[in-house]
């Protein structure tokens, strides 16, 4: 039972870390795109909203045979752009530039999650040396 609690705690920690990383990258992207209302708080809100929108829509549409995953990604991208546009109160062009930084942050977050969970699982299945 303790192992399950540890895995859940690590998962929650990774979600928080991913939101902070994505928010940081989106904040930097918003500053580089010269978004007027770029703050770290708005970037965190946008990062959480984009992640929820893209992951949920991709999951829902992946149930549709053939083009489900592709259409889910495209609709998730459109929803993410809307989230960024409204969070930063900016144009779609600048929102797209910020989204590129969000995409990079998601790749970094997934890499960290894989490395963290792989290490946790490896230590769980490795026998202690006596």
Keywords:
130 residues, mainly alpha, 4 helices, globular
Structure description:
With 130 residues, the chain is mainly α. It has one domain. It has helices at 2-32, 40-61, 68-88, 92-125. α1 crosses α2. The two termini are 24 Å apart.
Secondary structure layout:
Blueprint: H1 2-32, H2 40-61, H3 68-88, H4 92-125
Helix pairs in contact: 1-2, 1-4, 2-3, 3-4
| Helical content class | over 70%
Shape: globular
The description of the largest β-sheet is: none
Mean pLDDT, nearest integer?
A: 82
Number of helices: 4
Quaternary structure state of the chains depicted: single chain
Catalogue the unreliable spans.
none
End-to-end separation in angstroms reads: 24 Å
What is the strand tally? 0
The string of secondary-structure elements, in order, is HHHH
Question: TL;DR of this structure?
Answer:
The chain is 83% helix and 0% strand. It is mainly alpha-helical and 130 residues long. Helix 1 crosses helix 2 and helix 1 runs antiparallel to helix 4.
